[in-house]
Amino acid sequence: MLCIAGFDGYFKDLNPGWEAALGFSRAELMGRPYLEFVHEADRPATHKAIAALANGGRLAGFENRYLCKNGFYKWFRWHAVAFPEDKAIYAVACDISDRVRTRERTAWLASFPELNPNPVVELDLAGRIAYANPAAQRLFDILERGIAHPWLAGLEGILEDFRKGRSEKAEREVEVNGRWTRQSITFARKLRTVRVFGLDISELKRAESQWRQTFDTVPDLVAVIDKDSRIVRANKAFAKKVGLRPEECVGRRCYELFHGLPREPSYCPHAMTNADGKEHIAETYEENMGAWFLRSVTPFRDENGKLAGVVEVARDITAQKRTEQDLQQSAQLKSDLLSLINHEYANALTSMKLALALLKASEPGTSEERTHPYEVLGRAMENLRAYTTNFLSLHRLESGKLELNLRPTAVRAVVLDALVTLRPLAAAKKQRLSVETGFPESLPVAVLADQDCLSLVISNLVNNAVKYTPEAGAIVIRIRLESGPPECILVSVEDTGIGIPAAELERIKEGFYRTQEGREMAKGFGVGLTVASQLLAKHGSRLEIESEPGQGSRFSFRLPVWKQD
């Protein structure tokens, strides 16, 4: 936390960290003398430190307590410099409350060495042991081996710092025979005595080791990042991806390692979480690593509910992205190919149909023997036209490019119009093709539909019936008015054809599938029913199929009657 304080006893400026740490607003902190926020017991020392600063001195490592809005106090450590000519003090304060609480608990436990369950050892600056409490003697043969014991190994350097006045406190972790101890080492200068207080952290270390093993077995990149974008912990996968060891990642800015940039880019989900404090998930391409990642950033908060940092999980999805791109390219190629084929087919069929009409017109009154080939060519072209129309419609349906032009449509008129080109196909097989309506022809009944799509549905259903019904069979198109609500038109196409096994009734609507008997009886691609089914679905209807092998089939659908407002 940063601040500028005046010699008059008031803060002149504060950064936002003060409000977060103490709970007081900036106006509240600047509106009262800053000594009022200092713990009463710390005010004399604080006043003395300020007076020393006012004379041009510097302040380093000074500690005092500051009042929080909730009534509790926090410990701050200060580093400050004064500019007498400006009558201003520039200072940095660090919250050391947790460290002080640990230090006070350690001191309290150490004050009862005989009863303390943790090891406590006292020695002089030469390293000679003067005292070891029962816990220390029980756990280690300290008295026999002295400073050469592994529990005290490496203590010489700390004692040297104490002798030369470089420090009076130290902390470290020591492992002996598989048990870990956190040592707090304090030098009592007046007594020329060093006290080593140990706290068993073996279970904590084991838990940390297990967590680390789990953390490192995750194939995704995982990092714990503080609120200043510094990495607190990173798993092996993360470190490997950025070319470092896990411990080398700690303290580094995440955006420098992950993005290879001097600052957090706006598209980064971590930047979004820092901005609004919420979880964010995003796909990003990292150019410095040449890879795509699916990144999930989850915030965690401190005891005051303030954002303390995030946990980020990044999954390399480069292979998945390449597959998606390949599929998109394949779909585009298929789309372009279908469009080309349909366009060329349509042009060729138009030319063939025109040529056939000209040939027939040039030979008036020709014999039946001469007209038969024309009829065969006409039916062949009609089949090709139907195939082309179906493939083009299927392509538009799958690509989402088919848009319905809904308007009031007379179903009976659409059916009769479709039969103009279908009757010759039925006649060629000597089939009886008829239309039955359940209401008077004079009764105007319409549905809201796309006329071209509805015509294609009728054509496909009747064409299928003709194709899979033997010679001299019967096909009936029935149009019925059903009472509601809602009032509907029921259209059904019934035949006396080969029928469909029950297990294959739904499958034949999926496309490019025909029954074994159907493949043996007629040529085709198996897309007619798929197109009909999907077009009806676009109208909010459903193709229903009733069939029994050898007994024929019934294909039907319903559309609501259009009512003029």
Summarize this structure as a short list of keywords or feature phrases.
5-stranded antiparallel β-sheet, 565 residues, 40% helix, alpha+beta
Strand content: 25-35%
Classification by helices and strands? alpha+beta
- How far from one another are the termini? 72 Å
For the secondary structure, the number of strands is 22
* Helical segment count: 18
State the major sheet: 5 strands, antiparallel
| Lateral strand order in the biggest sheet | 2-1-5-4-3
> Roughly what percent helix?
25-40%
What does this structure look like?
By secondary structure, the chain is of the alpha+beta class. It is 40% helix and 27% strand. The protein is built from 18 helices and 22 strands. The chain has helices at residues 17-22, 26-30, 43-54, 97-110, 134-139, 142-145, 155-163, 202-217, 236-242, 246-249, 254-258, 269-276, 318-362, 368-399, 411-428, 451-467, 516-521, 528-538, and strands spanning 2-6, 11-14, 58-67, 73-83, 88-95, 120-124, 129-132, 169-176, 179-188, 193-200, 221-226, 231-234, 280-286, 291-301, 307-316, 407-409, 432-437, 447-449, 474-482, 488-495, 544-548, 552-560. It has a five-stranded antiparallel sheet with strand order 2-1-5-4-3, with helices on both faces. A hairpin with a 4-residue loop joins strand 13 (280-286) and strand 14. The longest helix has 45 residues, at 318-362. It is elongated, with a radius of gyration of 44 Å.
